Model the fold of this input.
Amino acid sequence: MTDTRDLILQDIRTAAAFDTRSTTPPRSIAQAYALQDAVADGLTSDPRYGPVAGWKIAANSPALLERFGIGEPASGRVFVAQRRDSPATLDAGAYRQFALEPEIAAVIGTTLAAQDAPYDAATVQAAIARFVPAMELLDMRGADMGAIHLPDAIAQNISNVGAVIGGPGVAPDALDVSTIRTTLTIDGELRHDVTGAAPQHPLEAVTWLANHLSARGLTLEAGQIVLCGTHSPIWYHEGTGRIDLAMSGLGEAVLTLG
Done:
């Protein structure tokens, strides 16, 4: 696994074209998380990434669960140096194939330690400080998500290259996902407009993640964020521009690519 880990680390650090680093037979979900953990150990010692600042949840809509033939979502890490508050400015040239996803993020206020699991929704709700609008940042690096073997994506942290966190957000007990209107405006042009598009209720998503991490001996820590699933298909963007995300009742997040 060490050789594979080192190859993946090199690919991620250099934004190389996505290579499955395939195994025969194909790796399992458990093998994929073991490899993701090993890759993360390598990234946290690199100042371009740093410690874990939060987590992403992927494939948590009924359609994607069916598409990948899985019984639960997938998770990946967000690193400190790639977590940015809105308004954020990034270099468009730093990515091979930049994309983003509009999401609700949970800001964790109280640590949910592995040894205290399992967690129920009431306990998790009390541990969430607020829900805020966010953009998950992705570098797809040419990966074909329509055809990919999901464990290959999990092993490579599901393409995450950070998040832009907006606000002001709402308290957990004030969140009504059915009424949230999500809009993406790019260079002043409305490009995406949808209401009630959360793939899963964010509280359910965070509860799943807390127990999922606990089963892996990991902790959801106070101050971390949780990206709770996209409100649109992967949104690709080439070149520079300004991207505004607005979520009714939660606020906005702004990203400028220069």
Remarks:
- The chain has one domain: 2-257.
